[in-house]
Amino acid sequence: VGEDVNMVLNRRLSRHPAHCVYADQQAAAEAVVDKLVAMGHREIAFIAGSADSPTGAERLAGYRQALIRHGIPVQETLIAPGKWTPACGAAAVSTLLARGARFSALVASNDDMAIGAIKRLHEAGVMVPDEVSVVGFDDIPLAPYVIPALSSVKMPVNGMIQETINRLTTMVEEGSRDALPAFSGTLIRRDSLRRLTGGAMMAVGRPGGIR
């Protein structure tokens, strides 16, 4: 395959739109916040991915943009850094609690961090989803088997791989250079997500636990 028919998977190339297959990570994160707001949540925490990750940056941007669109102030105290691992998710929750952050829902930039977050919330005496709803990204195979089963945004990885193969074949055989539309994520709702009824149930963090 010549250089001019190379394809990049899971990255948006604004200067070479015909040579990339990607999911719109920002739109997926916006859709998660839209769903949480529709379910009554307004104080929504976020665990970011690695600072140097385009995927993490887009998901954080989507979180911010959705809050702004709904007229909800972006509170920096509700955003904690992470680096994709369960331990980082747990540490991020510890950071939120130490800040005294109030939130009824938490979005983690991937499922591993969401699982770590659930464990730390449990250790702090916070019930998921009764007090805090938790949503992750990527719908890993473990997501349905943690307790509570993790709600997650499923990214169409298999479809993207197949489309990359198809596009390479088409480029070689027909020379097509049309840009492809972005793939979309799908929220898979499980037990870690609940609708707020009546007054919002807010988690109040403080060093050593929750009140």
TrEMBL record:
Protein name, as recorded: Substrate-binding domain-containing protein
Keywords for this protein: DNA-binding, Transcription, Transcription regulation
One Gene Ontology term of the molecular function aspect: transcription cis-regulatory region binding
Source organism per UniProt: Aeromonas caviae (Aeromonas punctata)
InterPro entries: LacI/GalR-like_sensor, Peripla_BP_I
Pfam families with a match to the protein in the record: Peripla_BP_3 (PF13377)
Domain of life from the UniProt record: Bacteria
Domain Transcriptional regulator LacI/GalR-like sensor: 33-192
